[in-house]
Design a protein that fits this description.
Blueprint (H helix, E strand, L loop, with lengths): L20 E3 L10 E11 L1 E2 L2 E2 L7 E10 L4 E8 L3 H9 L12 H10 L9 E5 L2 E5 L5 E4 L6 E5 L7
Antiparallel strand pairs: 1-6, 2-5, 3-4, 5-6, 7-8, 8-9, 9-10
């Protein structure tokens, strides 16, 4: 993948994970602020010697900011989403079956038509029926522990849209 000047930082991998790290707070938080903000996005852009061909193909990482307004405290945790796609990439040293990465044009078309959709849920997190779920554009979702950010396995809806 060629990089235009200035865009390299958007493709820099983040592999370091931290747990419950205290962050500096400037000013004061409202006393009523008590909860967490969880977000995700691509964070690993190369595995082995291979780089992803598109930003959408970066392996997912979750970020959690925990807020406690009574103590003026913010704590941060991040975790790579340990999906099947992540585990396979770490075992084989290659990223395959993604939007624009892995194989040539015909192999990607075959993957789109006949392959299993990726569970690299690097687009959004949502609360579904009381559970935190990492999602992407394809119909495979991963349940997530909202405190530790550990993957809980594939999430399946109990019903279907018709």
């Amino acid at each position: 993948m060629s990089m235009e000047a200035g865009f390299e930082l958007g493709f820099a991998s983040l592999s370091n994970e931290v747990t419950d790290r205290s962050l500096a707070v400037e000013g004061t938080l409202p006393d009523w602020l008590d909860g967490a903000l969880v977000r995700n996005g691509p964070a690993t852009f190369e595995v082995g010697g291979e780089r992803v061909a598109h930003w959408f193909d970066g392996l997912a990482m979750l970020h959690r900011f925990g807020f406690d307004g009574r103590d003026d405290a913010v704590r941060y945790t991040n975790r790579s989403l340990r999906s099947e796609t992540y585990r396979r990439a770490m075992e084989t040293g290659e990223i395959a079956g993604q939007f624009a990465t892995g194989g040539g044009y015909l192999q990607r078309v075959r993957q789109l038509l006949f392959g299993e959709p990726t569970d690299n849920c690097n687009v959004h997190v949502a609360r579904v029926d009381g559970r935190l779920v990492a999602i992407t554009e394809v119909p495979r979702y991963v349940g997530v522990n909202p405190e530790t950010l550990d993957a809980l396995g594939e999430f399946a809806f109990a019903d279907a849209l018709t």
